[in-house]
Every structure is written in C-alpha cells, then in structure tokens.
Amino acid sequence: MMTNAMTVDVEDYFQVLAFEPYIKRQQWEQLPQRVERNTNRILELFDQHGVKATFFTLGWVAERYPALVRNIVAAGHELAAHGYEHIRVIEQTPAQFRADTRKTKQILEDIGGCSVDGYRAASYSIGANNLWALKVLEEEGFLYSSSIYPVKHDIYGMPDAPRFMFTPKETTGLVEIPISTFKLLHKNLPCGGGVFFRLYPYGLSKAAYRYINTVEKQAGIFYFHPWEIDPEQPKQQGISFKTRFRHYLNLNDMVSRLTKLLQDFSWDTMRAVFLSPDKLHPVAKLIN
Length: 288
Known about the structure:
Helix content: 25-40%
C-alpha cells in the first residue's frame, strides 16, 4: 500500500481567514483558546492508529503553548512552519515575508529542539503572482513548501500548477508539494481536506485517494485543522452565510470521517513520504 502524507495546520478557530472581517488580531488574546486541547486530541487519535503526521504550526501558537510543540516532537511527528500569525503571503512584501518566516522557524526550532524543514503558507497564498516567496523560503533554509493549491478557488489557487511534487523554476533545491486534487473533465477538483472533506460523502474522498495511489501511482496529501474536530467551539455571530457554511459544516462528523481515513490508508509525515533520497526527483517544472 502506498503511503500518503497526513498534515495538520495548527491554528485556532478565530485565526482562520474567513473570520478576519469579524475578529481582529488584537482580540485573539481575549478569546477562549482551544487549540492546545484540540491538538492534543489529534495526537491521541494518531497514536491510537499508529499514524505519524506533519504539524504546520503558527509561531503565535507555539509561543503560547510550548509544551504542545514539545508533545508533537516527542511523539515522533514532524514540526513545520505555518507563518507567525496566519498572514497571507499576498499581503506581505518580500522583506516582511522573509522576516515572518525567519521568526517562525526560529521559534519552532528553539522550542521543538529540531530542524524545521517544511512551510505551508496561510490559506495557500502562494500562487502565480508571488512565486518569489519560494526563493525566499529556500534562502531561509526550508527544504520544501506545501503552499500551492492547483485549483480554481475564490480565495486561493493556481490551477495551472502541477498536481504533484515539482521543483519551481525560482528555486534550485526547494520542492513544492501541492495539496491533493483529482482531475475530472480536465479540471482539478480539491480532495485534500478542509471543508471539501466535510462536504463530500466519505466514499468520494476515499475513491479519490485510491485513484491517486493506484492509477496515478502518486502519494497524496491530506490536511485539516484542530478546530475541525471541535463542534463545541464558540459560535461566531453576524457572519455571512458562506462563512458559516464553510466553517461549521459537518463538524460533528469530522472525527468519525477522519478515523475511517486513518484506517483505510497508510500515512506518514511529509518528510518521510516526499523527502527520502529516492523521492527527490521532481516530476514537473513550473512553467509561466
């Protein structure tokens, strides 16, 4: 059985992009924080199923919950960077992005006592208009990015990007490892996690990963957030219907669906699945 990469974006419910118009960063400290509790639940679930994963962690979270970071590392998982406080790359200058990634990497490495090799941009905010960010990541010592989503989406996406691991022309060593998609009628559709995993019938997600593994003979990537296993999180008022739908859809079913996914496929960290010596042969070059 082919092994896929399991990943967790470690951020709290109030830090998601959809809530930015409603919750200011200055309010974060005053809100009920649930990321430590939820992430520890995820660690327990992974332990029950013998799964290792990559935890893309905000520097903001790591500073406030250093014991959580150490728990992740002590359990044999991979620690990776998700930026300091979930600012999209499209909102940063190259200098700001460099400072943000450098700061986050240092925080995580100091607390975790390990090398941080991977990076995932907030809301998959690296795309056709800011590929310079990949060169910055390479210069700051990262080995891989998982920041490009090869789909058409109202918030993010680069539908013309390769669907599987590749070396961007902007870099010489760093590889980009996109979130999993499946192709239908010449269009890339998301199947790598998030609201789509909660929206689709589980059988469709299962079939997509089976196809990626057995027909395309590629490893897939799955991602989710700690708040997605927490249907009891504080409910935000006055938000749009689209935001409410995306954020709260089927949270009650997430743990059971996730458990099926852990049982039906083999999972490991990004580093183990993609960065072993025999895997570092990118299958595509990025073409403008």
